[in-house]
Specification:
8-stranded mixed beta sheet; alpha/beta; 16 strands; 6-stranded parallel beta sheet; about 425 residues
C-alpha cells in the first residue's frame, strides 16, 4: 500500500508533529504534500528520511492547487490519500477523487464547538466541510468528543472512526540534566517555580489568562512554548501587568530538540525544566500538550481536554480540570506551587495513547477502507477509544522540500 499524506502546513503544531510521529510507525511507503509553509516539521521529516513536497498555494482560494495536486497523485499511483487539517481536507479530497483514488481518509484534528482551526463555524464553512467529507471514505476523529461532534453535524456514523493521537511517552521522561540545561538556556532561576504552556500563540489558546494569573503569583515564572500572531499582544499585556520579567517566550520547540533557530530547547527538555503545565484553551479537539505534560510527570491544570475527559475517572490523577478565568488558574497554580514539587508517576491516561497502539488502529482503518469493508458503528461512550478490527463487507510541479536548496540547506545545518 502506498500512502500520500496531504496537510495544510508543516510549521510546528500538534497535528503536524503527530503526522511526523506516525510516519515512523506506519508500515507503508508514504510521501507528504504540504499545501504551504514547509516549516520546521517538514525539515524534520526530511531528516528522518521522508519526502515532503510543497504545493506553494498562494492563498485559501488558489484553485490551481486542485489540478496540480491531482497530477501529483496520479503520477505517484497512491492507493490511499490521507488528509489533515481543514484546507487540506477540502482540496485533498477533491484532488484524490479526480485522480481516481478510491480510498480517501481524513483526520479531524481540530473541530471545536464554535470554530475549526480559528475559523468560525458558520453555514458556509460547515457546508463546505460536509460537501467535501462526502467525497472521502472515512473520517477519523482524534477523540470520542470529536466523533460525537461530527455525528451531530450530519456526518454518517458509519463513516466515523476514532483513532486518538499517540505519543512516545519515553521521549518525555523527566531528565535532571535537561532541566538544568534548559533553565540555564532560558534564563530561569534554578529554584523558581515555573509554569509551562505549550501551543500556538493564537487567540484561541487564551494564554493571556496565564499572564493575568501570574500577576497574582509573585514568586512564579511562566514559559510560553510556541509562536504565532499573539506574541506581541501577550508581551504587551505582560508589560502592562508588570510581570514581563517573569514571562519567557521560548519559541517553537520540536519534539526531538531540533528547532528552527537551531538553539531552542526540545519540547521534552522544556517539560523537564518546568514544574507544572497549564492549558487555558476552551476548545481542544484532543489536548496533546496535556498528555505530554503528564508523560513528563507534571501536574496539569486545564479547561478542556477530551483526551482526559473521555477516559474513565481516575485515569489521570495529576490533571486538574479548572474554570476558565485567571482567578481559577491562580488558585490551582498556587496549590501546585505550595505542594511538594516532585514528579508524578506516569498515569494510565498516557499509556492509553501509546503511539504504537494508535498507529495499529490507523492501519486497521486503512485496510478496512481499502477493502470497502463495513465497520461497526463506533461507540461514543466515555471510554470508547479503541478502533474495532475490520469486519467483512459492503460498502506545475510542487517543490520537493528534500531537494529545495533553501529548505535542504537549512535541514543540513540543523543536523550538524
Amino acid at each position: 500500500m502506498k500512502v500520500l499524506h496531504v496537510i495544510t502546513g508543516l510549521g510546528i503544531g500538534g497535528a503536524e508533529q503527530q503526522l511526523r510521529l506516525l510516519l515512523g510507525q506506519l508500515p507503508y511507503q508514504a510521501d507528504v504534500v504540504t499545501l504551504t509553509n514547509p516549516g520546521a516539521v517538514a525539515r524534520a521529516i526530511v531528516r528522518d528520511g521522508g519526502r515532503v513536497r510543497n504545493l506553494d498555494m498562494t492563498g485559501n482560494r488558489d484553485l490551481t492547487a486542485v489540478p496540480r495536486l491531482t497530477r501529483l497523485i496520479r503520477r505517484g499511483r497512491y492507493d490511499v490519500v490521507h488528509t489533515h487539517l481543514y484546507r487540506a481536507c477540502l482540496y485533498g479530497r477533491i484532488a484524490a477523487r479526480l485522480a481516481g483514488v478510491r480510498t480517501i481518509v481524513a483526520t479531524e484534528h481540530s473541530l471545536g464547538e464554535a470554530r475549526i482551526e480559528g475559523r468560525r463555524l458558520g453555514p458556509a464553512v460547515r457546508g463546505l466541510y460536509l460537501a467535501s467529507e462526502r467525497l472521502g471514505t472515512t473520517t477519523v476523529a482524534v477523540s470520542p468528543t470529536i466523533a460525537r461532534r461530527l455525528a451531530r453535524w450530519g456526518v454518517p456514523e458509519r463513516r466515523i472512526q476514532v483513532v486518538p493521537n499517540g505519543i512516545d511517552a519515553a521521549q518525555f521522561a523527566f531528565s535532571i540534566p535537561a532541566r538544568v540545561t534548559v533553565r540555564h538556556q532560558l534564563g530561569l532561576p534554578t529554584r523558581a517555580f515555573v509554569i509551562g504552556a505549550v501551543g500556538r500563540l493564537v487567540a484561541g489558546k487564551r494564554f493571556h489568562v496565564l499572564i493575568d494569573a501570574l500577576a497574582a503569583l509573585p514568586d512564579a515564572w511562566l514559559v510560553l512554548a510556541g509562536g504565532g500572531a499573539q506574541e506581541q499582544p501577550l508581551r504587551a499585556r505582560a508589560e502592562r501587568l508588570g510581570v514581563a520579567a517573569r514571562v519567557v517566550f521560548a519559541g517553537e520547540c520540536v519534539q526531538d530538540g531540533t528547532a528552527p533557530a537551531g538553539h531552542r530547547p526540545s519540547l521534552a527538555g522544556l517539560l523537564s525544566a518546568v514544574d507544572c503545565l497549564a492549558s487555558p484553551s476552551t476548545e481542544e479537539a484532543f489536548g496533546l500538550a496535556v498528555v505530554e505534560g503528564l508523560a513528563a510527570g507534571l501536574p496539569v491544570a486545564y479547561v478542556t481536554c477530551p483526551a482526559i475527559d473521555d477516559l474513565p475517572a481516575g485515569s489521570a490523577p495529576g490533571a486538574r480540570r479548572t474554570g476558565r478565568t485567571a482567578a481559577a488558574f491562580t488558585d490551582v497554580l498556587d496549590e501546585f506551587q505550595h505542594s511538594a514539587r516532585v514528579r508524578l508517576p506516569v498515569p494510565d491516561a498516557v499509556r492509553n495513547y501509546c503511539v504504537t497502539t494508535t498507529s495499529a488502529q490507523l492501519v486497521q482503518v486503512y485496510e478496512a477502507a481499502a477493502a470497502r469493508a463495513p465497520r461497526p458503528h463506533p461507540a461514543y461512550d466515555r471510554a470508547g477509544l479503541r478502533v474495532p478490527g475490520p469486519a467483512h463487507a459492503p460498502t506545475d510541479a510542487p517543490t520537493d522540500v528534500s531537494t529545495n536548496n533553501s529548505a535542504n540547506n537549512s535541514a543540513k545545518e540543523e543536523s550538524r
